[in-house]
Amino acid sequence: MLYNKVLFTTFWISLISTIAVGQTITSKIVDKKTNQPIPYATIQVSKNEGVITNEEGRFSLNLGDNFSKTDSIYISSMGYEKVGISIQNVTDSIIYIEPKAIELKGVFISNKNLTVDEIMENVENNLSKNYDFKLSHKRLFFRESEFNTVKKLKVDFKKSTIKELNKKFIDSVTSIIPKKSEYYTEVLCDFYNSSEKAKLHIIKAAELYDKNNMGSMDAISKKMETIFKDNVKPDSYLKIKSGIFGTKVQVDSILENDKEASAVKNEIDEQKKKEDKSNFLNNQKSGLKNILSSLFFNKDVLSNFIHKSGRYNFELVDYTYIHDNSVYIIEFSPKWRGDFKGTLYVNTQDFAILRADYENVKPLKNFKLLGIMYQDNLYRNTIIFTKGQNNIYDLKYLEMHRGNIFGFDRPLKVIEKNKHVKGKRKQNELSLDLEAFMSNKNKVEIVVFDSKPITETDYKNSTENKSIQPEYLSAYNPDFWKGYNIIEPNTAIKEFTAVPETE
């Protein structure tokens, strides 16, 4: 992305094209016949420089000084005619492209009229040749959008021997807990990766969320801590029961009132502050590593329709073109024990999957027992590949949706007991009935702008910047990514604004 001769793409900008050296072209790609936006179209001005349209068909391209009005941008998308437009002629905020007519020439029958099962067998046999399993260096942009919703939260107050822990207080805590929250992370980085190891060098990063949600929860925690210290003896233990299950927690291990424990705690807190500086990098590195390891050509993955193809039915339904490559369009659905359905676009010549769109047809995990339930209910992917160096296919774009539901409906008792006091060991008790159901949806976008193989020496010489921290944004900022090559944000991100902080 930020190479010496690379285009600069502006992320946050209005949808108006301008004409000038170093101009920004911002537009929307639309199907001329249906008037529908075209997502994931490639916009290029040279072989290795360009962007991709987002899910709404929008893109922004910031041209550097290396390009003039006489240069052209080239627009290509699966099933459409490739279009070249002179930069000086890109004056509209909408660009229309037409579907490409499919001509069933010998290119589609050159593989001896293979059956769909034979095509899929060739796909699997050519995985190691077509995809990159070795060390590589990728310049990429990584955006993660997380949406949490509390669908139901009911706390039925039963009993409390602590005056402050009354029904009014419990109700106030329930009312403060945010029912909906959004959290966006954006990272521009260099990712050094293989199947065994990874390094990450972050160039720039941002976090977009509402700090008020975090402040509300911090206030609850501080209030609970004060109540706890004022009413519970350090040498007590807590008996926590939910139905027939129970556990003990020593109170003094929580309070840590004595000087020695406080000193240890302070030392741990200082160490944690140092470690927190690298947590962001480690979390992003781990996330990228897990996502890339989950792609369908790897073994032992949830998306197992290639390595466990016997669980699926495949049907050859049509043909099309992707970047001048003729491809089979193959649809698949579960036969037995299969979890996914989708569409594969397979190169007719080398049997590489150039694009895969698929989603789960049933929950991947479904647990329900004793008032506790968990369901892994969403797994939807769009993955696009392009042929890179050494005729190996590299990831160009990935959009992944994951989601789950968690809930419980159980009684809860917290009982303070103390064996060092006279009389009954039981000191205090809090009794509640809890019913809560929450959903989490996570969307990941990865755009790879450049990918190349590297040696072990290159990997050893690469560096990580563990101290880098993301910049906090309380609202969409049209200037934050100005001059960088990334993917245009969707409308939800552009319209996000945190509630102003209160005094």
From TrEMBL:
**UniProt entry keywords in alphabetical sequence:** Signal
Pfam families reported for this sequence: CarbopepD_reg_2
Asked if the Swiss-Prot or TrEMBL record annotates the protein with the keyword Signal, the reply is yes
Q: Which domain of life is it from?
A: Bacteria
* InterPro entries the UniProt entry points to: CarboxyPept-like_regulatory (IPR008969)
Give the signal peptide range.
Answer: 1-22
Q: What is this protein called?
A: CarboxypepD_reg-like domain-containing protein
Give the species.
Answer: Aquimarina muelleri
Taxonomy of the source species = Bacteria, Pseudomonadati, Bacteroidota, Flavobacteriia, Flavobacteriales
